[in-house]
Amino acid sequence: MSSATTSASGGRPVLAPPPDATEPVRHPDAPAPGTPLGPHYDQCFGCGDDQPYGLHLAVRAGEGVGVTAEFTVRPAHQGAPGLAHGGVLASALDETLGSLNWLRRVIAVTGRLESDFLRPVPVGATLHLSARCTAVAGRKMYASAEGRIGGPQGPVAVRAQALFVEVGVSHFTSNGRPEEIRAAMSDPDQVKVVRAFEVGP
Ligand SMILES: CCCCCCCC/C=C\CCCCCCCC(=O)SCCNC(=O)CCNC(=O)[C@H](O)C(C)(C)COP(=O)(O)OP(=O)(O)OC[C@H]1O[C@@H](n2cnc3c(N)ncnc32)[C@H](O)[C@@H]1OP(=O)(O)O
């Protein structure tokens, strides 16, 4: 019987890139460091402007295949009184990590996300996030992220390692609820986002 940490990788620790992994490549048209990436979908819980209880994460391109982001914890994000819910913090890490794929112009979804919660994060605190892609192997993208509180140089409160898997647009059109897919396809801004991915490197 395979262990929980090796089951999806044929015996290899799942978040360690395989020997044939390569360095991530930043797409030539990736936005300059410091540029806001903007939401990939206005209803996204992580980055969407139209999600009232969402994280409204503001992600910016960094150097190489790296990003930074800020997320301010609101009362809707509590787990214990006055403290952020761990699942919400994991969502902030997931969204930040997911946005790395925009710099590669690859559509990818989270396959595995491992999170460490090192310090409690109070309501009102801003989590200063940074993420970078560490390796690519075929459709798999390996990445890590951390979130600091009290300022960009403050102590690390959360961190994560993740594996994203490249997918086509059909991942969404075949699996998403038809009414949201129809609405997204009739939104010219959303179609622009999809086209940008489809041009590819
Ligand atoms: C107009 C309408 C369209 C709109 C489009 C808008 C564009 C928007 C742009 C961007 C959106 C991005 C959204 C970001 C949001 C933040 C990120 C999220 O939260 S995403 C949601 C959570 N994640 C999922 O829901 C995935 C659910 N899982 C799956 O769908 C599949 O399991 C999937 C795609 C991950 C893999 O399935 P397979 O059948 O394609 O491929 P297999 O062969 O199973 O895996 C490929 C390789 O990956 C490894 N792998 C897969 N899962 C693994 C795991 N959990 N752990 C370790 N390795 C894993 C496998 O071992 C395999 O490796 P080997 O090639 O054999 O070496």
From TrEMBL:
Species annotation: Streptomyces polygonati
Thioesterase domain location: 82-151
Region named Disordered: 1-37
Pfam families noted in UniProt: 4HBT
Record's keyword annotation contains Signal: no
Location(s), subcellular: Cell projection, Ruffle membrane; Cytoplasm; Membrane
Catalytic activity as recorded in UniProt: decanoyl-CoA + H2O = decanoate + CoA + H(+); (5Z,8Z,11Z,14Z)-eicosatetraenoyl-CoA + H2O = (5Z,8Z,11Z,14Z)-eicosatetraenoate + CoA + H(+); hexadecanoyl-CoA + H2O = hexadecanoate + CoA + H(+); dodecanoyl-CoA + H2O = dodecanoate + CoA + H(+)
Family the entry assigns: Belongs to the THEM4/THEM5 thioesterase family.
Gene3D superfamilies (alphabetical): Hotdog Thioesterase
SUPFAM superfamilies listed in its UniProt record: Thioesterase/thiol ester dehydrase-isomerase
Membrane topology: Peripheral membrane protein
EC number: 3.1.2.2
Protein name per the record: Acyl-coenzyme A thioesterase THEM4
Top-level taxonomic group: Bacteria
GO molecular-function term, one example from the UniProt record: hydrolase activity
Keyword entries, A-Z: Apoptosis, Cell membrane, Cell projection, Cytoplasm, Fatty acid metabolism, Hydrolase, Lipid metabolism, Membrane, Transit peptide
